[in-house]
Amino acid sequence: MQTWFKFKPTFKEMIWGGDRLKREFGYDIPSNQTGEAWIISAHPQGESIVENGDAANVPLSQLYKMIRPYFGPGKNAEFPIMVKIIDANKDLSVQVHPDDEYARRVEDSLGKSESWYVLDCQPETRMVMGHHARTSEEFNAHLLSGNYDTLFRNLTVNKGDCFDVSAGTIHAICEGTLLYEAQENSNVTYRVYDYDRVDAKGNKRDLHLRKAMEVTKSPCKPDPIESEPIVIGNNKVTYLVENEYFQMRKYEINEDLTMELGEVFMIISVIEGEGKINHNPVSKGDNFIALPKEEKLDISGPVTLLIVEPKKEKMM
């Protein structure tokens, strides 16, 4: 049975998008205003498609239903994770996402906790991460008064920075950032501020202030996660994020490395270089799922990988 799947992304054109997904990864983007590559997605608003083997041309959601037990233990019928690469050619809106309880009750959806790894950014690139209000009442008052400059918390970011952006966190990716995002399988977003800009038809995008005020955490001032790499010979492994939904690790492979698989599937993204995994050629921009039945991965480089692995409890 096939246990190694390569995926073709689906793309989203955005008011703030650009052409860097093509320039960096060689992706066949639909226009020079492409903001997102959904590189691993089983979401009904945009699915990634298997490119290799007997399962070629099968959408991920269908593959998951067809061979669900091979992805890991449990009976959860909903694929738990989505992974994107985001090209912020301009500032994204300031926004917030609900947690699972609120999203199930109000949107009939999963919530949206996410984690970010900054693939690249321009010097002095900023990011909105959290806010300065001490209470929900203070946050709501500033928001409704339009006191955005004093409310939103701006940070300067650098290539390689990592953030765990839990549900309820006010945030915005800003101009000049190329970002890898792992998240729950959800597309629920509450837009708080959009710079009063208009789309090609002259229309402003909707804001969702009431819902945003109901879900925003206060106080909220997340900082980048500090992680030291573990050196294994000429290789480095960095544990970037571990939350209740998944863990994300970075592997910088310069000499052959064997990695054991656990009980659940792995999402593997090649962010630099080229090499082989279990004799399969891989190169920058490729994205895969390896099933536990694969048992181990023999990796040769030089290649840099980001690996996302869902928590077993979220498969149940």
Quick structural gist:
This protein has 316 residues and is mostly beta strands. It has 6 helices and 24 strands. It has helices spanning 20-25, 60-66, 100-107, 136-145, 148-151, 209-215; strands at 4-8, 10-18, 34-40, 42-43, 46-47, 49-50, 81-88, 94-96, 114-121, 126-131, 152-156, 162-165, 171-173, 177-184, 190-193, 230-232, 235-242, 246-253, 257-260, 266-277, 280-283, 287-290, 296-300, 303-310.
Keywords:
single chain, about 325 residues, mainly beta, Jelly Rolls, 11-stranded antiparallel sheet, 6-stranded antiparallel sheet, globular
Structure report:
13% of the residues lie in helices and 42% in strands. The chain is mostly beta strands and 316 residues long. The protein has two domains: 4-215, Sandwich (Jelly Rolls), CATH 2.60.120.10; 230-315, Jelly Rolls. The strands form five sheets. Strands 1, 6, 16, 17, 18, 19, 20, 21, 22, 23 and 24 form an eleven-stranded antiparallel sheet that branches. Strand 17 and strand 18 (246-253) form a beta hairpin. The longest helix has 10 residues, at 136-145.
Poorly predicted parts: none
Radius of gyration: 19 Å
CATH level-1 class of the largest domain: Mainly Beta
Query: How would you spell out the order of helices and strands?
Result: EEHEEEEHEEHEEHHEEEEEHEEEEEEEEE
Q: Count up the domains.
A: 2
Strand content: 35-45%
Per DSSP E runs of 2 or more residues, the count of β-strands stands at 24
CATH architectural arrangement of the largest domain: Sandwich
* CATH topology label of the largest domain: Jelly Rolls
Q: What is the multimeric organization of the chains shown? A: single chain
The total of helices stands at: 6
Average pLDDT, rounded to a whole number, is 96
Class inferred from helices and paired strands: mainly beta
Gross geometry: globular
Looking at CATH, the homologous superfamily of the largest domain is Jelly Rolls
Roughly what percent helix? 10-25%
